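Incident log entry.

Two folding requests arrived from the same account within the same minute. Monitoring flagged them as a possible duplicate submission, but the sequences differ. Recording both here for audit purposes.

Request one:
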Amino acid sequence: MSDQIDSASQSTTNDWDVQETNEWLDALASVIDKEGPERAHYLMERMVDLARRLGTYIPFSSNTAYVNTIPLSMEQGSPGNIEYEERLRGWMRWNAMAMVVRANKGGDELGGHISSFTSLATMFGTGFNHFWRAPSENHGGDLIYLQGHSSPGIYARAFFEGRISEEQLHNFRREVDGHGLPSYPHPKLMPDFWQFPTVSMGLGPLMAIYQARFLKYLHARGIADTADRKVWVFCGDGEMDEPESMGAISMATREILDNLIMVVNCNLQRLDGPVRGNGKIIQELEADFRGAGWNVIKVIWGSEWDELLARDKDGILKTVMMETVDGEYQNYKAKDGAYVRQHFFGKHPKLLEMVSHMSDDEIWRLTRGGHDPQKVYTAFKAAQEHKGQPTVLLCKTVKGFGMGKSGEALNTAHQTKKLDEETIRAMRDRFSVPIPDDQLHDIPFFKPAEDTPEIQYLHERRKALGGYLPHRRTRSDENMPVPDLSTFQPVLEPTAAGRETSTTQAYVRVLGLLLRDENLGKRIVPIMVDESRTFGMEGLFRQIGIFSHQGQLYEPVDIDQVMYYREDKSGQILQDGINEAGGMGSWIAAATSYSSNNRVMLPFYTFYSMFGFQRIGDLIWAAADMRARGFLMGGTAGRTTLNGEGLQHEDGHSHLMAATIPNCMPYDPTFAHEVAVIIHDGLKRMIERQEDVFYYITVMNESYPQPGMKPGQEEGILKGMYLLQEGDKKAKQRVQLIGSGTILREVIAGAELLKNDWKIESDVWSAPSFTIAARDGHDAERWNLTHPAGKQRVPYITQCLQDKAGPIVASTDYIRAFAEQIRAFIPKGRSYTVLGTDGFGRSDTRAKLRHFFEVDRYYVAIAALKALADEGAIPSSTVEAALAKYGIDPDKANPVTL
């Protein structure tokens, strides 16, 4: 210790009182020696705090030395059988490699990744063998977000466990015939195996953070005991550049998510090259996370470095470790021991002297911390036991560990899928895989007999931890009744004379009725992103409270109001601030709670529709992969309903994006009764029947009289279209008019213009879902294609319109492609005209915007007249007369171009 003090004193060139400095350092050394580093840390923190309170400026640094956070003296030895675990890791690495290489033999080129798992194997093995608990009678189970590109290694382990067959390994990335394995973690494709999709990159960290918060929410509300459960998430260091990876780390600190452990696999490489060739990604991430308030544990150096670091009395080795950049570290592992001796230890004569007794092979075997089971176990144990903060582990590894000259630490490692026979032989030897030379060409899978001690050990460890992982529950054990549709009778009835309401208000009314339901009420999870007042939902603040682990430490400024802002430790609302991605993270956690927690929850996430699918579409797709169940409520929806806001706020395409997701049920209702029927259908399907679907419902803040539901309309609402009002059957000329959302009211008004001004009758159809109707049509088309001799199915849209005379016109608040979805199912020989809001939005009144985009009542009438004229039913001069009558400039610029 005195040597280090002397060295530190001598290196301080501006020290005007060396003796005083040494006295302070001697005192610190004495505390460390007699009372331990924790006491020393406490005293130093107290001194820094005092100095700052006395007005002294002390710059903050969130970085520590480039060494392991946990010193050798505080290491906890792994209780496992190190030899068995090493052999199992080697064999799994072999099978993971074989899986990928076999998938790319010949001309198949199916892809896959070898190098990610090879660098993660020690960490995964440590977690599976000693930490990660499966759901059992006594424990809800830990939730593990496994790094997506490492999937071959997870399959290799499941193969040893007997949960995956050799045939499945052989069919890695060959899924169509039903006997293969998906490329990455996909619950949609392996519903009883994978829990969480972690590709696209960046989504795993974000979803895990909100999952950890949701566990706290369930516990605080008394719905499930989650006190002893952990959320682990594995990420790559390159993945941390994704904004989603880092965007919510401050929330994890603010919410005291000490049930969250993030493990960053710092192998220093991404697909194209180094993550930070000219810097140090571990130091960068340490600063980010520690600055955000996380507990940071660095696992940089393996046990072979301990002796060298202990001999580093003058700190030269630590200095070189810090000054060496990641590009150099990558180069060292891509070369050999002689290169490391020359270019790393050769940076200082004393370092060369330090390793003079070591051979080049011994220098080469100086491992990184993420490959050392003792270091990893110690870090995992410390993370699991830490309280009061989320923990991040920054574990340094080698990309492509064990791949030799074909991939180890090379820039090409991530994409390497084919290995030559020399590399395959080297991997077999390095990991002691008992496969003879004459079989190497076939790259066979290796599986030890069930009675071998290693396999017995693997089963014993998982038995001790409650069962095998990953494993996904496909249905909740809870059977929750849903209220009858009549529960929503106040919304199903017509509004009283002179009264108006919006579909948003209808939705809020339905939500309020659900919250009072004795069975389902406590399971409703309203999720807001700072728009409650926009949607008239502020009344829920006082009624059910906003979840806050701290409760409310202040008196709200609006305490004297009926609807004051109330935070509560057992609050029901999840308020995620101006943060659509965070709101979606909360929604995903709640929408998959039936699987993750065996608790049925029903989330309603309400947001500006423009900032939903467009902004967080990747997360919504991940939710679909996870078989989420819940409601996404797109408020102020449509291009023209949000008058005054302008281009960036006006949604004309979210329904097209929703249409691309097969298990998303999208609806654009016009009336309150349609909203109630659709939500009730969702309750039946998602809660009562536990179907893996979710609903996207757009609602508007435009108020108008509500007609109420008439008998027989319910089925048509759910199928996507129904006859709202029928024109005079005796009329000589008639048209079929279709609309959805608020523009249906323009269609109704257009029908009045046609009747009053041109003596033409209209049948008016409400189309709550062009998408659902189109899916029915596509399904019928497919059936007819594959059953040419059987009875041909008639699409629902065709059934509705085939006996109704006249051309067909559809107008919506979305771009034309939305209503174009049903064109193929329009009865043959019938014209179909679509009006839509293609183009950029802008600010103005609703009436002006609808006229600008050519979807209002006047354009509906003009489109109908033009269709009749094209059929020869009326002269074209009638259309010209209508244009003049309604003041429409025939040479008006196309709104798409403006």
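Request two (distinct sequence, not a duplicate):
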Amino acid sequence: MIVRGAVQGVGFRPFVYRHATELHLRGWVLNSAQGVFIEVEGAADRVREFVLRIEREKPRRAVIRSVECSYLEANGYDRFEIRESTEAGGKSVLILPDVAACAECVHEIFDPLNRRYGYPFTNCTNCGPRFSIIESLPYDRAHTSMKKFAMCPECEREYHDPLDRRFHAQPNACPRCGPQLELWDAHGAVLSRRNDALLEAARIVREGNILALKGVGGFQLIVDAGSEAAVRRLRARKHREEKPFALMAPTLAGARELCTVSEEEERLLLSAESPIVLLRRKASIFSPAVAPGNPFLGIMLPYSPLHHLLMVELGFAVVATSGNLSDEPICIDENEALERLGGIADFYLVHDRPVVRHMDDSIARIVLGREQLLRRARGYAPFPIHVRTPLPTILAVGAHVKTSVALSVGTEIFISQHIGDLETAAAHAAFRQTAADLPRLYDATPEAAACDMHPDYLSTQFAAQLPAPLYRVQHHFAHVLSCMAENELEPPALGVAWDGTGFGPDGTIWGGEFLLATGAGFERIAHLRQFRLPGGDAAVKEPRRSALGVLFEIFGDQCWEHDNPHGDFAKADSRLLRQMLAKKINAPLTSSAGRLFDAVASLAGLRRRCSFEGQAAMELEFAVDPKVVDAYPFEVRDGPPHVIDWEPMIVALLRDVRRDAGAGVIAARFHNTLAEIIVAIARKTGEESVVLTGGCFQNRWLTERAVDRLRAAGFDPHWHQRIPPNDGGIALGQIIGVARAMGESNPNEDR
């Protein structure tokens, strides 16, 4: 038997061993680079029962993609055994993501009679680090960062006992033989070790200090969420003005004290993936500095034994944010942390188990009763998307913002962990390392490279240097293809791809697109009316510039009579902006829905300047009055492509501003209008399947409203759930697009 899928690091070989011996069968089982190989012999009825049990009673964390069986002549084995792994053949086994501590391991670390009492690196075959420690396949201790820790006799006994929960648990360790904690001061001097380090770290947090904690996938910065001074000091040192911080609550009950938690949200909080979950806050219990102006809190529960021990010692919620400066990847090495987090952290709680690859905390929310990932990393990466037909080996490098990379191997598309924006040298280095990491893990030589069409993206320039034919995939088409792949849709389908920026084939900035995905490519069916962005990229951080561009598109030079969007521009800036728009210099055209969100947020008086990406759109979503069900007018100019004219909407919106209708009414009518626009274009195309993709559909209110209206109109809407549109989605869509193109062209020429 060959069992393929996520079958290593989940106790699959011990599971096979137990069933084989229970049925008095003989033979062997081993890990290979393709999955798990089994050879078993015995009475025919018992062999048949064994085969049925493999899929019917598999370990709870295992995911079986296929089971291939062939019957052979008996070899005359005298026992059943677990054999040494083999590295022969192509590598296609699925690597399991890091798994949150199971209930049994958590019980052990709080049991004074257990030998792992208080041990922060306790794990078993059901839980613990996986992707963050693996160096190569197959998944064996010798191929992980645990190889330097020789097991003590008691751990060896567990490891070789088929009836033990730690039978062949690769990261198995205990206080005698495993990794250990140390507490360092700001200069790297050791202050305490082992349990004393944990207790001292808790005291440090209670006193309002900033603790850098080395976790499963890298460093987190920890402060008391109830200390306004500590939170504000962390913001100042991390250069993070207003972007919300994530919190770790000590227990589910603690999370319920802070936020409303539905059944679906509770399941997500307690899941093996254990992401940060966006929950509606109950009251302003903490300093406004935790999540300024945000009705939601990002809450996670302790997911590693180290977190469980620390949070029980503290007994209150803490800020647990990525251990980095803004726009940089998180630190994974304690010596690197001293340098990069120097000036931020007061103390460092570190350990000597190496982290092989950085792994941020994933972020999720519940939308329409389903899980929707906003950031895909720990707990999810690198679990692949499965496709029906084997693909060429393609390396896709994503775009520029919230980047991930992807690699296709056979019928699996492996998507890396979240990397982030390629804005800094550290982020670019992490991107290059990740782009090399996936092919190395799977011993794969890409037959093609896929990138965005934007010529100035660092990812595009990196892909151009790879020794493989290069394919450039239009940004929004990649969005559409990824959502279709995730939802297992075949073309044709209408894709609604709305985001902030994407390079269009016509040289303009796209972002408010309706694309009909066909078997051969796409047709731009419709788009939002274009307007100019004075100052180009500067408009991303200043929604007032987008507002000015919208008004200029409607009123021309008379837009300066509308005080709202530019009342706080300095006189010199106003003159310069006026010249940009009049002369069309550094004022590119865009159809971006994201910039339209910004313009409306500015016109409604919600946000004229942003301190982080998406802030204006978030505040517009938060402002929605759910009791408002009417929409603004709009027009559709017949194409091809059709042009959605938002001028009637903006004119009506300005009337609402003048009569002081309130931001809640304006925000609701704007969102409702966007939903009606989607339905109107869907009716024009007549395609039943409609996919909603791009960063704008991480707006829960827009997604829910659009889905409700599409369903009411008889369409079948789909949206991203496990793959975020940017963070993995772009790279996934690039692979799907290139795989199709390779079937239609000379595979050796760039396209």
